[in-house]
Amino acid sequence: MKFLFFCAPILCTVLSAQTTPTETKPAPAAESAPSLKDDKVVAVIDGKEWKRSDLEHLVKALGRTIPSQFYSDKRAFLKTLATMEKLASMAETKGLDKVDPHKWVLMYNRELYLAQIFMSTQKNSMLVMPEDQKAYYEAHKADYSQAKVKVIYLAFNDNPLNEGDPRAKKPKTSSEAEKLAEQVIKSARSGTDFVELVQKYSDDADSKAKKGDFSTIRPNDNSLPSQIKSAVFALKPGQISDAVRQTGGFWIFRLEEFVTSPYDEVRDDIYLTIQGERFKQWMDGMQKNLDVQFKDDTYLDYKSPIG
After folding, report:
1. What is the DSSP secondary-structure string of 128-147?
2. Under CATH, to which class is 143-157+169-260 assigned?
3. CA separation for the pair 194, 113 (Å, rounded)
4. pTM higher than 0.70, yes or no?
């Protein structure tokens, strides 16, 4: 099926160059749209009948650009399909499906596709009951909490490539930024208004324009470095974090509040999480029972092709 997807545009080009385009006859205005209830044979290719339902299922399964090609010109699509089947039959007659490298590609792609659809079927069959979702939510509420924070970002550059305009502001070095971060933290913890410190020192234009407001942070947000998440979730509302060094700058956070998402907002995520965990357990168990025996360590440990 995937072969058709890649070959169809090429074959369509070949056909259009060698044949006269088929005239598409518009259906009479009074004629109703075709229905699958009347599952007629619409074409016969090399003796094989293709019904309406066969073609609809084929293009739906292939997806991507195939449906648009099919519905824009079904006759051209069927000619392409016939060409593909004829060429495939000729290839098998010549035994091309049994010689290198084709036999290995066909074998691997077939087993890969079957493995993928079986894994998908297995995972989708793992139903999660509502009581399991609620129990998971109660046991993992912290995972569904969000930290609202304000931030000050102090940028540094220890190796500027170009000094540029001598009148331009010189970038801070890492040691200068670290020293400033300590001063800012001391001021914030002693009661200086955090927003004032944001406006005076922060180098992050987006959060600075929002008076230091930063995107909400969740414990399981993999888009943020672990050092930032650890620093934020160690705070209590109103507390100021130590400076968190990252590439190019130091981050200072003030925790505003923790907000826990209600169950109804996250139950779909919980369903997928539990289902994923159960599927992983199933996969781990299946892989433990694989029958694999390694016989040639010299070859298996060698890192380059041979022969």
Report:
1. --HHHHHHHHHHTGGGGEEE
2. alpha beta
3. 56
4. no
